[in-house]
Amino acid sequence: MNNTQLDIYVNYPGNCQEAFRFYEEHLNGKITMMMTHAQAPDQNSMLPADWKNAILHARIAIGNTTLMGADIPGAEPMRSAYLTLRFDTAAAAEQAYALLSDGGQIFMKMEETFFASRFAMLRDKFGTSWMLLHETKK
């Protein structure tokens, strides 16, 4: 299993493009692919007509990680998995916390813990769950 890479795939209820554009702008991401259902070579006849501009598949690189996603009718927010962002500085962790928590739901506010100078858990306004971390130097 040489050169194996684990990527993450997130389903959105219709706001995948908005989420990925936000992550690209604010998390130094780079969108490498984004296709709507209308752009697909074989159209899904089961898809509601108002979902033609919804995202069929998107890919963004954030650091060394690839996040992929799509719009899926009825998709619910992430419940049991978190995307974890590790930062080089406490200030960068605080900045991401301010951006991602705006309009979202905070599970654990940004604070110092025994394992990190800054740590927080939240779900952003797009339904993606995040852990933000600036580790304590040992």
TrEMBL record:
Family matches, as CDD domains: PhnB_like
InterPro entries documented for this protein: Glyas_Bleomycin-R_OHBP_Dase, Glyas_Fos-R_dOase_dom, PhnB-like
Coiled coil: none
One Pfam family linked to the record: Glyoxalase
Residue ranges occupied by any Glyoxalase/fosfomycin resistance/dioxygenase domain in the UniProt entry: 12-131
Name used for this protein in its record: VOC family protein
Organism listed in the record: Chitinophaga silvisoli
